[in-house]
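Handout, page 2. Input:
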Amino acid sequence: MQYRTLGCSGTVVSAQTLGTMTFGAEADEETSHAILTRFVEAGGTLVDTADVYSAGVSEEIIGRWLAQHPTEARQVVLATKGRFPMGEGPNDLGLSRRHLRDALDASLRRLGVEHIDLYQVHAWDALTPVEETLRFLDDAVTAGKIGYYGFSNYLGWQLTKAVHVARAHGWAAPVTLQPQYNLLVRDIEHEVVPAALDAGMGLLPWSPLAGGWLTGKYQRDVDPTGATRLGENPQRGMEAWEARNADERTWRVIDAVREVADGHDVSMSQVALAWLAQQPAVTSVILGARTVEQLDDNLGAADLRLDPGAVARLTDASAPRVDDYPYGTAGVQQRHRSITGGR
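Output:
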């Protein structure tokens, strides 16, 4: 396992994170505990959850594991999130001081801890002033309830605004951003990644395997069946399948991943995870597993370092489509220039 600092903080975390959205849903408590144990045995330290995962059950499952494994728990860097509805009332969601206070206290109770290492706001809230949210988070740091805070699913301008508001007031600054990022979804490279780099924030990418598309289990012109997310959710899944199946770029990326995997004698999942771990600003890649076997395969990417040729093959095949401006040719010319100058 490789280790990196958590964004610009001094806390060290594993370059792979255990995501626990499956806990209490696709993985029962026994399986979830086995996954946690295997992850920590492999050297993993960062465990990520959220209050809305299985309506709080994911946090409860993690809390019971922490209580049963006090020695191992000391090495865990614990992360959770709040923002989405946990009740029916108008204040049971959002990034207001009131809701975040209740959400954080509830997460602490479910996890059975007095302190959360990384508390993340799960998404932007257009109704709550950013100053209100950031002041609460700074207060939570001061009170010792959280060590650091971060964002999830923020746009570039939202991230930058929050960073500069925090700095202007002398409040604790965010250290991480959790975005969707993988070989099929690279749009964040235009604005979000540069904003994170400018702020010194680390990325914790979710959905690194694009919902299973980068594992090789889907094939061109073959309808998905069996134990796949698309096969298990036919109506919703087939809509996504048809959209992807009509997209030649998707199959070009999958072909490139398969080619690199064959050349390195590893799984396609490991190649996709390794490529992502080598991207700028990435601190730790979030793994989502329903079984210990799935986790073991993903852990195989922990020490896989792709050579420059393989990285270039994958990067070229997955180049994101862009409009002409500001991300097309004219935009590229404005973002870069030769140091030697001249016409």
